[in-house]
Amino acid sequence: AGGGHIERKGHQASSPERLCHTVQKRNRILRDMKHYSRAIVITGGAGFIGSHVVRLFVNKYPDYHIINIDKLTYAGNLANLDDIKDKPNYTFLKADICDFETILQTLRRYDVDGIIHLAAESHVDRSIKDPFTFARTNVMGTLSMLQAAKIFWESQKEQWKMSRVNADGDEVCTECRFYHISTDEVYGALELTDPQGIETPFSTKASSAHHHTYGQEFFTEETKYQPHSPYSASKASSDHFVRAFHDTYGMPTIVTNCSNNYGPYQFPEKLIPLFINNIRHRKPLPVYGTGENVRDWLYVEDHARAIDLIFHKGKVADTYNIGGFNEWKNIDIIKVLIATTDRLLGREEGADNDLITFVTDRKGHDMRYAIDSRKLQRELGWEPSLQFEEGIEKTVKWYLEHQDWLDNVTSGDYQKYYEKMYGV
Ligand code: NAD
Ligand code: DAU
User: Fold this and answer.
1) Which of 165, 226, 396, 398 is the most buried (most CB within 10 A)?
2) Closest ligand by atom to 299 CA
C-alpha cells in the first residue's frame, strides 16, 4: 500500500463450509480470503479531508479493510498518509472515479460494503476557470461511483446487505452504505445583517472565544439549493444524483453538507494555508473584494469525527449539516493568522499587517455561509472538540513546522514523482 498499486495484506484463508449459502458467494469469499468485518472504500483519501478520514478509520478500526481510491490530481498527495501507509488494513488504489469498470471491479474484488465518497475537484477559483473538469469529476464521477455500487450491491443475495466472515470465523452481516460528502455551498449565500443569530449550542464552547454571528439566517437541512459557482453547482448536482439513487433504487445513501474546514494537509491554494505560507515568506496576502465575506470554520478532525459517527449511526436517506457555529469575516481571520504566525516566528506584533493587499473580488463571491448543525448535535450527539483559537494555533504551528510539506506541494515535486511512478 502507498506504493500506488493494489496490495493484498493480512488476508487469511477461512473454511469454505462456514462462509456462505450460495456458490457464488463462497467462491468470491474464497478468492478474496478476507478476514475483515467490513471493507470500506474511501474516495479522495489522498486529499485534505480524505486523508484525515482515512487515518481515523485505519487507526480506529483495525478490523475494517480501508481501500483508498484516489486519482492523485494536483490536490492528492500520498505524503499526507505516510504515518499509516504500512498498516495491514490499508490499501491504496490509484484510479479515477470516472473509470466505472475499475470502480466496479474494485468493489467486487474487496466485497466492499461501505463507500465514503470525498473525491472531488474542490477549489471554487479553479471551477470559475475550468468548469468542465468540475462537471466531469464531481457529477460524472459521483454517478460512476453510484452506478458501480448499485450493480455490485444489487447482485448480492440480499439487496444492500453484505455478509462476510471475520477474523474470529463468525459470519457478520452489514448494511451497505453510500455516504456522500458535500458542502454548505450548495445552499447559496446568506445576507450579512446585524449580528443577532443563534448562540452557540455547544456545551464544549467549541466555537470561538469571540463567538459572533453575522445574520439571523442559517443554512438548515431544509434550505433550498441555490448554488452560484460552477463548483457548488457540480456538488449540488452530485447530491441530487445520490438522493435519486435512494429514491429510485432504494440505495442506502446519506449526504452531509459541511462548512469550511481548516487544519493540517490542506492544499495551499485555500485561504488559510496559502496565507500562513505567504506571511512566513513575507509575500502579499490577496484579499478578495473588501474582505467582509463570512465563512464558518471547522477543524478538519472534527469533520472526520462527524463522518465516522454519521457513517455508523446516521439514518439512511437522511441529510446532516456539519458546522462549527464559528463565523469569521475573512479580514478578521486574516488578522488572526498574521498575529499568530508572527508570534510563533518571534516577529514583532503587527509586523506583517502591511502584507494585506485588497484585490479584485472573486466572480460571484458568496457573501456569507453559516451552518445550523443542531440536528446532528440533537440526533447523534456530535459537537466539535476544539475551540477555534486552539485549532488555529495548532494549524499555524503545523504549517510552520512542515515547511518541507509546503515546499513539496508548491514546487510540484510530488507530482513529478507520481509521473515517474505511474506514467501520468
Ligand atoms: P481536496 O481537493 O483536498 O482533495 C480531493 C481529493 O480527490 C484529492 O486527493 C484528489 O486527488 C482526489 N480526486 C480528484 N479528482 C478525482 C478523480 N476523478 N478520481 C479520484 N480521485 C480524485 O478536497 P477536500 O478539501 O479534502 O474536500 C474533500 C471533499 O469534501 C470534497 O467532496 C469537497 O467538496 C468536500 N468539502 C470540502 C470542504 C472544505 O472546506 N475543504 C468543506 C465541505 C465539503
Ligand atoms: O464552505 C465549504 C467550502 O469551503 C468547500 O466546499 C470548498 O471545497 C472549500 O474550498 C471552501 O470554499 P471557499 O471558497 O470558502 O474557500 P477558500 O479557502 O477558497 O476561500 C475562503 C474565503 O477567502 C472566501 O471568501 C474567498 C476568500 N479568499 C480566498 C483566497 C484563496 C481570499 O480573499 N483570498 C484568497 O486568496
Assistant:
1) 396
2) 1
